[in-house]
C-alpha cells in the first residue's frame, strides 16, 4: 500500500524541517516582515511597531499528509516559529 506524501510547500510560505518530541516534521510558515508604525502630527505613536515573525500554518509528519499543527502545544509552536525565523534570516 502506498501512503500519501507530504504536500508541496505553497508558493508564499517558508518550508522548515524540524524534530519535535522525536517526531520529524515538515512545517509551512508564513513570514511577516518588521513594520514601523506611524505617529500623529505631535509624534505620539498612532500605530505600533511590529517585529518580524513567522506563523505556523502546517506541521506535517514527515513523509505523510498528516497535519498535526492544531494538536501541538503553544510552547512547541512558539519554538518552531522562532527556530524557523532564525533559519530564514541565516539564508
SSE map:
Elements: E1 14-20, E2 23-32, E3 53-61, H1 74-90
How many helical elements?
1
Rg over C-alpha atoms, rounded to the nearest angstrom: 17 Å
Number of strands: 3
Which ranges are low-confidence, i.e. pLDDT below 50, for 5 or more consecutive residues? none
Q: What is the domain total for the residues?
A: 1
Estimate the mean pLDDT confidence: 90
What does this 3D model show about the protein?
The protein has 91 residues and is α+β, with helices and mostly antiparallel strands. The protein has one domain. Helix content is 19%, strand content 29%. It has a three-stranded antiparallel beta sheet. Strand 1 and strand 2 form a beta hairpin. It is elongated, with a radius of gyration of 17 Å. The N and C termini lie far apart (38 Å). 14% of the residues are buried. The model has no long low-confidence stretch (mean pLDDT 90).
Provide a compact summary of the structure:
The chain has one helix and three strands. It has about 90 residues and is an alpha+beta fold.
Amino acid at each position: 500500500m502506498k501512503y500519501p506524501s507530504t504536500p508541496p510547500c505553497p508558493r508564499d510560505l517558508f518550508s522548515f524541517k524540524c524534530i519535535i518530541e522525536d517526531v520529524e516534521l515538515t512545517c509551512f510558515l508564513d513570514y511577516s516582515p518588521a513594520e514601523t508604525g506611524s505617529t500623529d502630527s505631535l509624534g505620539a505613536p498612532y500605530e505600533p511597531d511590529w517585529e518580524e515573525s513567522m506563523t505556523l500554518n502546517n506541521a506535517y509528519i514527515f513523509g505523510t499528509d498528516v497535519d498535526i499543527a492544531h494538536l501541538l502545544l503553544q510552547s512547541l509552536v512558539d519554538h518552531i516559529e522562532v527556530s524557523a525565523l532564525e533559519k530564514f534570516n541565516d539564508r
